[in-house]
Design goal:
alpha+beta, 2 domains, 4-stranded antiparallel β-sheet, 4 helices
């Protein structure tokens, strides 16, 4: 029996040692947890501080999103306006407006296209009668108030879009100029 008791005592001793080692591990983890949380808090605080400083610095440097680079109007760095070939064979067109009391419209329009584009020149020349008819019908579908000088930019853009989408196939109109645009009450 003494051997059996000795074995039981050893088993109880090893169980007690295992329990005590488990308690030491748990105690060690509990003691380590505040240190771990302290470092995590320091890291988060540093991250928040860095992000705040970067955002404030960025807003100060950009002054609310305004560009710091100001290019003066006389600057040599502003791109030059492109040069176009001009098609002026349409000539002077006379028509009436859409108004109840018709106005007489006199238009002389020049079409600008890419410089040295022989295909565009050929197409514009080949479609001369279509272009004249387009100009006549376009201006006869407008009211006199739409033909005022303050609306010229909108008229030019509209004409460019219509010519490029409905009349011309390969040529692309880049600019429209008016030698004459008058709407006079009849």
């Amino acid at each position: 029996m003494s051997d059996a008791q000795a074995t039981e005592n050893q088993e109880e001793g090893s169980q007690e040692e295992a329990e005590s080692s488990k308690k030491k591990k748990v105690a060690g983890l509990i003691a380590f947890l505040p240190h771990l949380l302290k470092f995590v808090a320091i890291g988060l605080g540093a991250l928040i501080l860095i992000v705040t400083v970067v955002v404030i610095t960025y807003n100060i440097l950009n002054k609310g999103g305004k560009s710091q680079t100001v290019v003066p109007e006389n600057s040599p760095y502003i791109g030059t306006r492109p040069q176009y070939s001009m098609f002026s064979a349409i000539g002077l067109i006379r028509t009436r407006t859409k108004d109840p009391t018709p106005y007489a419209v006199v238009v002389e329009m020049i079409i600008g296209y890419d410089l040295n584009n022989a295909q565009a020149a050929t197409e514009l020349t080949g479609r001369l009668y279509e272009l004249r008819d387009f100009v006549r019908s376009y201006f006869s579908s407008k009211y006199a108030e739409e033909l005022q000088p303050e609306n010229e930019a909108r008229l030019k853009q509209e004409i460019i879009e219509l010519l490029n989408t409905r009349i011309l196939n390969t040529a692309k109109v880049r600019t429209i100029l008016f030698n004459q645009l008058e709407a006079v009450e009849m």
